[in-house]
């Protein structure tokens, strides 16, 4: 989130309007507020298993901000088709694997267990299927012989901070052509 906000300067076609989290202790909330960016926190727990109610509250809270694009970054909640559909083509996410490989959680451990020679990250459009939307960009890193899930995650995260802002700039300007960083 910080990398995205930091990239939105000068002639960038997007501006940060809101940072929203389901966790009040998320570091990005305090940071965004300190930058003068509006923030909202919606705890999912009071909604129990009712994801639709949680998402209805999200929709109600973001409506006044007249959001054009939603950028998910570390939002670890699966969104339903009811929330995703109105945002189709206007919501993007970053995922720490080279999709379509390793959708979901524990991507680095799974890549290491499979003996992959490279790993990376993917920015994609959000669809109703988990980590399955059109790919907008990917960045690759080699898997090193002594890698652990944590060491691999750190190298992938560095690429996420380069890839996501680059893709967002293009996406906000209307360019959905995938890009691939080495």
UniProtKB/TrEMBL annotation:
Residues that, per the record, bind (6R)-10-formyltetrahydrofolate: 51, 93
Catalytic reaction annotation: N(1)-(5-phospho-beta-D-ribosyl)glycinamide + (6R)-10-formyltetrahydrofolate = N(2)-formyl-N(1)-(5-phospho-beta-D-ribosyl)glycinamide + (6S)-5,6,7,8-tetrahydrofolate + H(+)
Biological processes per GO annotation: 'de novo' IMP biosynthetic process
Annotated site location: Raises pKa of active site His: 131
Keyword check for Ion transport: no
Pfam families membership: Formyl_trans_N
Catalytic residues (positions): 95
Enzyme Commission number(s) of this protein: 2.1.2.2
Entry keywords, A to Z: Purine biosynthesis, Transferase
Top-level taxon of origin: Bacteria
Family named by the database record: Belongs to the GART family.
Protein name according to UniProt: Phosphoribosylglycinamide formyltransferase
Species: Roseovarius azorensis
Lineage: Bacteria, Pseudomonadati, Pseudomonadota, Alphaproteobacteria, Rhodobacterales
């Amino acid at each position: 989130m910080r990398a995205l906000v930091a990239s939105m300067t000068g002639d960038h076609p997007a501006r940060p309007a809101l940072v929203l989290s389901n966790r009040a202790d998320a570091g990005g909330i305090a940071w965004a507020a300190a930058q003068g960016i509006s923030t909202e926190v919606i705890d999912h727990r009071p909604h129990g298993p009712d994801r639709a109610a949680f998402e209805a509250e999200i929709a109600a809270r973001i409506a006044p901000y007249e959001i054009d694009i939603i950028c998910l970054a570390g939002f670890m909640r699966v969104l339903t088709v009811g929330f995703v559909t109105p945002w189709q083509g206007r919501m993007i996410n970053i995922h720490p694997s080279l999709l379509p490989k390793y959708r979901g959680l524990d991507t680095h451990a799974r890549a290491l267990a499979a003996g992959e020679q490279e790993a990376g990250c993917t920015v994609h459009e959000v669809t109703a299927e988990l980590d399955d939307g059109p790919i907008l960009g990917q960045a690759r890193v080699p898997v090193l012989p002594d890698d652990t899930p944590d060491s691999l995650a750190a190298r992938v995260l560095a690429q996420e901070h380069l890839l996501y802002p680059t893709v967002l700039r293009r996406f906000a300007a209307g360019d959905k052509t995938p890009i691939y960083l080495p």
